[in-house]
Structure formats: structure tokens, C-alpha cells
Amino acid sequence: MTGVERDLVLALRAELAAIDPSRACDRDAERAGLDLAGRPRDPMLARLAVRLGRPDVGRDASDAGRAFDWDGRPEHCRMAWLRGLFLSRGSLSLAAGRTHLEFVVVAADAPVLARRLSEAGLPASWRLRRGLGVVTWKSAETVDLFLRRIGAGPTLLEIEARQVARTLRGELNRILNAESANVERTVEASTRQLDAIRTLAADGRLAEQGAAVRVVAAARRETPEATLAELATRTGLHRSAIQRALDRIERLADASPGANVRRLA
Fold first, then answer.
1. pTM of the predicted model, to two decimals?
2. What is the dihedral of CA 64, 68, 70, 74, to 10 degrees?
3. Quick one: which of 185, 169, 174 has its CA closest to 228?
4. What percent of the chain has pLDDT over 70?
């Protein structure tokens, strides 16, 4: 991640850690989700644990979430529990325009957490990595929804704004690249057609062609950069007629004089 992206993630975590639940049940749920085993030196989480009144800062990670009655608690308690779990066991990456959020928990808790997230309308994948369970989201929309539901506010808006800006830049680049490719193809085709017109004009075969071919050849000479649609507007012919005339001009130029090439009117 860039420095700006790391700062955004840190600001998001600080914003979530600063939430002070008004309901006693939410405070209890966030305490249940906050797993500080192995992370006693994280000052932000230590302050949060003290504020929530958590006495067992060094509890075993294998107890994470086991005391929380997910099935019997309301939505707001579930989100408070997930907020505590994310702050202590979650990580967010915004690197290279890709959003990735994962929870690293003990192996036995991974399928349980994945099930709970699915029940909350936030389906996630899970796998084992070096003996630990990893529950993952790679969808920016799902990650944004999760963060919003656990209480993220201004920092999430900034992250979303950056995601939208990045998407727009990508779409603009795609359009510009496609347009550049179209222009390049038009220029290459026009160059071939002008060379063919000069060849036919020099040996007299252009004058032998039907009116449509001669009109199109004249229009191409006068406007080398014009697209087929612009030539159609200029000549009053259908675009398909323009394409057939130009194709005939190139075939005639490639053929030797006197070759039998079907005449267009």
C-alpha cells in the first residue's frame, strides 16, 4: 500500500476504536469480540480494552468468540462483536486499487465466523494458512458494507471516494485507449485507401469505375482523416456502400490491370 492508503487504514481503525457504544449489551458484545491475545502492546487496542472494561487482556486466542451468543443476540450486538473482532483480528489492504479484508483466527473458528458473516448478509470465503483460519473478502462493495455496518463514517467516505475516483480513471483510460486504437485503425485504413486511389488514378482504372466508387474516392482524398460515418454524411451514401466502395478500391489496386474485378455501379 502507499503511504496515503496506509494512513487511511490507520485512520479507519482509530475511528472504529473511538466508538463508545451507548448500550450495555453492545459494550459487552464488543468486549467479547475483542481478542488481544498476542497483541498486548497495541496501545490503541489496550486503551479500547480499558474503556470497555476488559479485565482479561491476555486471554487465549482459542477462546475468541466462544462466549458470545451470536444466535441469541440482536443485530446491533452482532455488529459490535464484529467491530471488536475486526479491530483485534482483522486487516484491511487497499493496495494497487484492490480491496482485501481478512480475519486471522484459530483454525476451528474460521468456518464458524464464515457462517456468522453469511447469516449477516456478508458471505466470505475461508481457508487455512500456516495452521490458522483466514476468513476473507475481496469485494470492495462487501468490505464497504461491512465497515459501514460496524460504524465506520468519515474515513470510509474518503476510502469510497478514492475507490470511485480510481474506477473513473480506469474507465477513462479504457475509453481513451479504445479511442486511440480506433483512430490508429482509421489512419492505417485511410493510408492504404489513399495509396490505392493514387494507383488507380495513375493507370486510369479509377475513371472506369462506377459513380459510387468515384464519389467515395474523391471524398477520401479530400478528407483523409474522416471515418466511415463522416464519409457517409459527406457523400449522402449509406455507410455500407462506403465500405464496399473502399474495399473495391483496395482490391483493384492489389490486382493487376485487366484483372476481372466485379464492377460497382
1. 0.64
2. -130
3. 185
4. 89
